[in-house]
TrEMBL record:
The lineage of its organism: Bacteria, Bacillati, Actinomycetota, Actinomycetes, Micromonosporales. NADPH binds at residue 107. Keywords: Amino-acid biosynthesis, Methionine biosynthesis, NADP, Oxidoreductase, Sodium, Threonine biosynthesis. GO terms for molecular function: homoserine dehydrogenase activity; NADP binding. Catalyzes the conversion of L-aspartate-beta-semialdehyde (L-Asa) to L-homoserine (L-Hse), the third step in the biosynthesis of threonine and methionine from aspartate. It catalyses: L-homoserine + NAD(+) = L-aspartate 4-semialdehyde + NADH + H(+); L-homoserine + NADP(+) = L-aspartate 4-semialdehyde + NADPH + H(+). Residues 356-435 form the ACT domain. Its cofactor is a metal cation. This is Homoserine dehydrogenase. The active site is at 207 (proton donor). It comes from the Bacteria. One of its GO terms (biological process) is methionine biosynthetic process. It is an enzyme of class 1 (oxidoreductase). Its EC number is 1.1.1.3.
Amino acid sequence: MTSPVRLALLGCGTVGQEVVRLLHEQSADLAARIGAPLEIAGIAVRRLGRDRGDLPVDEDLFTTDALGLIKRDDVDVVIEVVGGIEPARGWLVEALRAGKSVVTANKALLAEDGVALHEAAAEGGGDLYYEASVAGAIPLLRPLRESLHGDRINRVTGIVNGTTNFILSAMDATGAGFAEALEEATELGYAEADPTADVEGFDAAAKAAILASLAFHTRVGAADVHREGITEVTAADMASAQAMGCTIKLLCIAARGVDPAGRETVSVRVHPAMIPRSHPLASVGDAFNAVFVEADAAGQLMFYGRGAGGAPTASAVLGDVVAVSRNRLAGVRAASESAYAALAVRPMGEALTRYHVSLDVADRPGVLAAVAGVFARHDVSIATVRQGSAGGAPGRDGDAELVIVTHVAPDAALAATVVELRGLDIVRSVTSVLRVEGGA
Ligand code: NDP
Ligand code: HSE
């Protein structure tokens, strides 16, 4: 057998520890598949003394000098499972420029500055693989960048954040509010101590940028993604969705479009949305992820599985390690970044979708007509109107609750409608505005 492929592992936390375990448990099979054994040259961490359980690895391999480890001549492949922008960016650029192959799970960095990494990979001639960065264990990026390269992808719709899917699924199943469901997610270890990146949609937005870049051969960064989280979704919103035969999911939607000048564009957004129970994504529960891809020739494809967790994520990392190791042994590298289409990213205001708007209004003659008039002035067509008693108490304070669902309209038109509604005396409050996707 040829000499080993030597690995530098940066990070040994939730994902890194499972990478070490899999490398140990599968070493013979991995060696057979690659044609050379994999060997850990070193493991960079922040705290040398941290308890990492009974990891099957020599303690002497640990170091706090990540850069020193990367620069070693006997390192072929750098695996980065630390996360964050710096120092990870500096490390990976250094490794790639030096001709090493990189495998990373770092979606935040790829969405923030994937360009720097791709350029460094092109300069050094090594591979840059990042299957684990989106939807954990689910093989998704390789299908997008290889299997579907002969087709034209039109739309990618996904649930790509496990924590928020757990929270929304719990709200749907039990009627719990957001805070209560978040508490449960934290107790069960799904949500982190600081859940901001998940519940505010930053994590999903980074993944959306990566998916859109690959699907549309266009550079899309985190800043190009319209992002809204789930913190404002209430138990009443979920009940309203259920009344319409829907549920609420945090969706990432990346779609081709055409702007008013006739140029092809992409739009990329992350926000909570009502989807009908009959939609394939509606049945994706718990902390699972799923991504629905629509392509010209392939039609509709759905990818489903575990999007987070040490072992599932390590599975994707190891798949990449096998691929880049084989490439090194064969003296080849994978195709580089494909961004030739360079489509313009369309502003959110031009995104077309439907809306579910709940209002508390004065319950007196002419109110419905006045509210409908505001929608009409902004060219937003109403599909259905439902009236009930505000707060569920008949005639409470003489108020009524209106639930209006629109036909498809530009986001900017709906936003302007809501601003004008909020300024009306007869409107006590606009209690919620949710987008409706998937033909509900
Ligand atoms: P953890 O926080 O569990 O682990 C991070 C590791 O990085 C720790 O071992 C830590 O060292 C080490 N580290 C942090 N800062 C430094 C530093 N300056 N120098 C050297 N080592 C450092 O993170 P995860 O394993 O959960 O996530 C890793 C990556 O994988 C992230 O990019 C994340 O987004 C991504 N990912 C995670 C998933 C998951 O389910 N957890 C799913 C998909 C992707 P020490 O142990 O000493 O503290
Ligand atoms: N925090 C992320 C999630 C981890 O909940 O999906 C996987 O990227």
